[in-house]
Design goal:
alpha/beta; Rossmann fold; pyruvate-formate lyase- activating enzyme; OB fold (Dihydrolipoamide Acetyltransferase, E2P); 3 domains; 5-stranded mixed barrel; 18 helices; binds S-adenosyl-L-homocysteine; binds iron/sulfur cluster; binds FE3-S4 cluster
Length: 481
């Protein structure tokens, strides 16, 4: 069978990254291999995000650019999937005439069938059906994952929380968890192909399995931690209202769980939190953080904020800055509030002007920058355990694994050059770029995927810089099944 080329443009959150990987795996069975070149593609897919207006605009401007390609190559198939596809449905086919397929967030396992039909019948297809259950994708043995150290694994779909600003419940549907057996099996497969770290994904992982009467989230992580060869577990996102004591305890009991939690607070003002329907107060949030820090003193906490929510006063915004000062977050994401279709807040009165939102966003980011700089600076001189992900961008030319192999294959040349530059992350999720003398690491094959000790020499705002000391021996408890 002739190999065909697939180009995927993934916009949005980690869930979309995972979904795009599932799409690639599913289409492998139809002989589609990915390409980085748009003009070489036989099939172009856009996996879209609807969270803010800007993300949606990005989708339509990309789709617009494809008209010329379709004109040149009428056989080209173009598909739009993900959250904007789910939200807009048929409207996309009407608005963009050169689109062949619109597939929603629950149609990923059906995509190979859809593409087959378009190939043979030359028709346009829309599939935005929302099945309750997540359908598992039959994947061709994890051949794609070779060389990857860290991988996302979606453990649950949808969201039942209905925060008043958010589009996710409408585009991802109701909360639904995957069976623990299939999750563990998938992770085992990833580890067999070299993955050493997984990030478990869900909009609210704390409520994993509750609806279906499966195991609790911390029990799921305990089962996953038994996978031999897996070194680290991360998860995102945890809703503060549901952060349970047993999940907090997992940071002490589960040796593979990294000491990082993303705990989006959105605002420091109780008045705003109430109108956002977040179902916790600033006080309750701080209480939970206190418990977390008692159990795991070096835990790194990150967060999301929305500025300019309808009716947010200067006093409310001050409370947000005050919370940031109290929390001393490791890092945070902040967004200007954006009206979304279906989200109740889009009808709330007292909208904040764009200029005011811009000003508040800038103030917040400047405020956090100082805290972050101080935090990063305090790490200079320390030794950090880093999971090596691959050669740093500066030195890799393509995939990290091939770059590593190429560098090794050019042997003597590389070893004469003093140092190679690598990249990885600490347990707290800080990016560490570091140099390592090739002679020191030449017996560690492959180097990516190992836990190593790095002496930190310099701090930047988004990363740390250091020097390789030695390999960290892995405690038997981390390797045992
Ligand atoms: N389930 C996660 C968040 C998913 S969306 C949670 O509950 O934390 C990621 C982030 O986008 C949110 O945390 C929020 O800060 C931001 N966001 C969501 N809707 C938004 C909107 N309408 N305008 C601006 N930011 C928004
Ligand atoms: Fe959106 Fe709230 Fe659900 Fe997060 S918890 S996805 S912010 S509705
Ligand atoms: Fe965007 Fe959909 Fe994720 S709206 S943030 S891609 S769940």
């Amino acid at each position: 069978m002739k190999t065909k080329k697939l180009y995927i443009n993934t916009i949005g959150c980690q869930m979309n990254v995972y979904d795009s990987e599932q799409i690639e795996k599913g289409l492998l069975s139809m002989n589609y291999k990915t390409t980085e070149y748009l003009d070489k593609a036989d099939l172009i897919l856009v996996n879209t995000c609807a969270i803010r207006e800007k993300a949606e605009q990005k989708v339509f401007s990309f789709l617009g650019r494809l008209a010329g390609l379709k004109k040149k190559n009428p056989g080209l198939i173009i598909g739009v999937g993900g959250c904007v596809a789910q939200q807009e449905g048929e409207k996309i086919l009407k608005r963009v005439p050169h689109i062949d397929v619109v597939f929603g967030t629950h149609a990923i396992s059906r995509l190979p069938g859809i593409i087959k039909r378009v190939e043979s019948k030359k028709c346009r297809i829309i599939d935005i059906g929302m099945s309750q259950k997540i359908e598992e994708i039959e994947t061709v043995v994890n051949s794609m994952d070779n060389g990857k150290v860290s991988s996302f694994v979606t453990i649950m779909q949808g969201c039942d929380n209905y925060c008043t600003y958010c589009v996710v419940p409408y585009v991802r549907g109701r909360e639904s968890s995957r069976d623990p057996e299939s999750i563990v099996k998938e992770i085992q497969g990833l580890v067999n192909s070299g993955v050493r770290e997984v990030t478990l994904l869900g909009q609210n992982v704390n409520s994993y399995g509750k609806k279906e009467g499966l195991c609790s989230f911390s029990e799921l992580m305990a089962r996953i931690s038994k996978v031999k060869g897996l070194l680290r577990i991360r998860f995102t996102t945890s809703h503060p209202k549901d952060l349970s004591d047993d999940l907090i305890l997992a940071f002490k009991d589960n040796e593979k769980l990294c000491s990082h939690i993303h705990l989006p607070v959105q605002s420091g003002s109780d008045r705003v939190l109430k109108r956002m329907n977040r179902k916790y107060t600033r006080g309750l949030y701080l209480e939970k953080v206190d418990k977390l820090r008692k159990i795991c003193p070096d835990i790194s906490i990150t967060s999301d904020f929305i500025v300019g929510f309808p009716g947010e006063t200067n006093a409310d915004f001050k409370e947000t800055l005050d919370l940031i000062e109290t929390m001393k977050y490791e890092s945070l994401f902040a967004f200007k509030y954006s009206d979304r279709p279906n989200a109740p807040a889009s009808h709330f009165p007292h909208k904040i002007s764009d200029q005011e939102k811009k000003d508040r966003l800038q103030k917040l980011l400047d405020f956090q920058e100082r805290i972050k700089r101080e935090k990063n600076q305090s790490m200079v001189g320390s030794t950090q355990v880093v999971l090596v992900e691959g050669l740093s961008k500066k030195q890799s030319s393509g995939g990290t694994s091939t770059a590593e192999t190429q560098a090794r294959e050019s042997g003597t040349d590389v070893s004469k050059k003093a140092d190679m530059q690598w990249t990885g992350r600490t347990s707290a999720n800080k990016i560490v770029n570091f140099t390592a003398d090739n002679r020191l690491i030449s017996s560690i094959e492959p180097f990516a995927g190992n836990l190593v000790n790095i002496k930190i020499d310099k701090a930047f705002s988004h990363s740390l810089w250091g020097k390789y000391k030695n390999i960290k021996s892995i405690p038997l408890s981390l390797m045992a099944s």
